[in-house]
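Methods: example folding runs. The two proteins below were folded one after another, and each record is reproduced exactly as written to the output file, sequence line first and structure-token line second.
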Amino acid sequence: MRFKAKRCGVQFSPPSIVLIYEHKDTNKVRKRVIPVRNFSKYSDYSMAAERLKNHPRHRDYLEGVSQSQLERLHIILRDHMQGFSLEHSLASFQLDPDEDLNKLNDDELARKKGQMDGLFERNRRRKDDPDFVYDLEVDFTNKEKCSWDEESDDGF
């Protein structure tokens, strides 16, 4: 890998991916603007990101950029083409515990589930972790009283 990606971003007009990278041979930091062609507000962002990452002209530069990062940038571009603000697009990447996931369409639901899976894997404790405890027991105190807790005293 001759190039090390430093930062990624989007440019709305014309729709482009902006990559700040360091050339490892010369240690110079450069900027590359990669146009996103044949992409509309109805396009599939994952296919467009994969197509861009495998493009022969940009493959070497985007080697250090993850597929999920490129997908997020394409989602921001698509949302802008649909008329949404940048704040709305960035808020869609945040997990809201009070959000009703039953009201989302399949595309948004898959994105939220992917975010939850990533968060779970980051917080997961493995056997080789230094702070791993095999049989951890935690006592959760119930702070809220529920009426069904008090009524069900029939031997269970």
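Second run, written to the same file directly after the first:
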Amino acid sequence: MAAPLPQLAGLPPQQQQPPPGALREISPVFLCRIGQETVQDIVTRTMEIFQITRATQLPNGVTQSHAVYQDRFGKLQEHLRQLALLFRKLRLLYERCVEMTSDLQEAPAELVPYVGEEPGPVRAEPCSPPVVQERQEVLEKVRQKNQEMKVLMDQMRNLLWDVNAMLTLRK
């Protein structure tokens, strides 16, 4: 299945070509790598947009040079145009990846759950008795350390309260 090369705007010509022998078919891994680079470009452009807007002075009665305003406005417009192109490129890469991997048997699981969403039950295969024993020992050690840290935090909190009380009485 021959796949056309996606347009790689902004990359030098040596990075636009896939590895030798892969000209007939581009793998989803290669598309994902291009997608990762595109996301990095999107983040960089977005940071530049925020830097431009942060450096822009609000017109609160101060006369600013019209040329400076036009220059910053032009830069901002160019960054926004590039950002829109990068998002289109990312969408095309995503659609192509989904198309190429649609024949996989198992759909990828959601990597980052939504806030408030309970994760589904995790299947765990039965472990050997020594592994279960070691797990119980580690859990007990963690519980003990947590209890020690809790006591220490309470002591620190009480100490801070005492110090603050002394400082307020001193004033």
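Comment on the second run: DSSP finds four helices and no strands in the chain.
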